[in-house]
Amino acid sequence: MIHQYFEESRRKWLLIIGGLSCTLTIAFVLSLALGSVNIPIGKTLQFFIGSSTGERSWDLILLNFRLPKALTAVAVGSALGISGLQMQTLFRNPLAGPFVLGITSGAGLGVALVIFLGFILGGFLELSGIGRNWLLVLSAGMGSFLVLLIVTLTALKIKENVSLLIVGLMFGTVASAVISVLQFFSQSENIQAYVIWSFGSLGSVAWSELYVMMPIVIIGLISSILISKPLNALLLGEHYAISLGINIKRIRLVIIIITSLLAGTITAFCGPVAFMGIAVPHLSRMLFNTSNHLLLTPVIILFGATLMLIFDLIAQLPGSDLSLPINSVTALFGAPFVIYLLIRKKSLNYS
Predict the structure, then answer these.
(1) Which pLDDT belongs to residue 267?
(2) Dihedral angle over CA of 215, 84, 347, 283, nearest 10
(3) What are the DSSP calls for 239-300, one per residue?
(4) pTM of the entire structure?
């Protein structure tokens, strides 16, 4: 009976992961085919098989715009979903997300300094040859890294997760205050540039930037899978985890570093993308009825990537030249769905 139960459970999860993989593939193809210029799905598939659709303009659109954007969406959805899962497990708080350590705020502060003090950096840009996009990426990455360094050093001194959570939120508050001061003394066009960056964007990542972003995200996701067992132990409390021989201080540092790498990298290249980090773990737990990180981690990677592709499709308004800010779409369409599932399920399953 026990063997039969585990065999049925194994078959069920293979079907779930296989189904999510198929859904992700369909969403990926649709994101390439649909947009302001609709490309037939047959031609889109032909592009992958033969590297050409037969139409030069379609080839250029797919290669230079839609393929990098679709890959970016996959990276954003999976990375932020995993970051949120790890934060919610570490702090045992359903409202925890990638922002709680101040990583997103640090990236925002770095970008704000570049945009609002841009007149000082104008000569440097001309001399170095660094483009504006790369400068924003580097500044956001440096802001995230500095906050990561401070939080990591703080984690070595503070034993309680709640205190560490408060420290992260305070860093975010200080960064927001500095940004507000910079905005107050800045010109309107600089404020507009920062606001546009804060909307988040999947389409601003070129191939040269993908070559940097994707390896970091892949390393972070693989590392997340490897620490699934310690995360499962943390669900039952720190005392239980210690009884299993887990070094709490070490695993906490590992979680912070992985989360910071994933969330910081995504924020650096795409701006702050709302909703995904908090909601995707909840949706995955409720839809697939598990808190086992060995199963939940690959499910969130696939599910988060699929959701992000769907949200990007909606934001593109296929057939129209207009597009919506990705943050608006993720919040407007995602939040009501979470509310509906919570009302239906009446509770969240964390154990």
Answers:
(1) 85
(2) -40
(3) HHHHHTT--HHHHHHHHHHHHHHHHHHHHHHH----SHHHHHHHHHHHHHT---HHHHHHHH
(4) 0.85
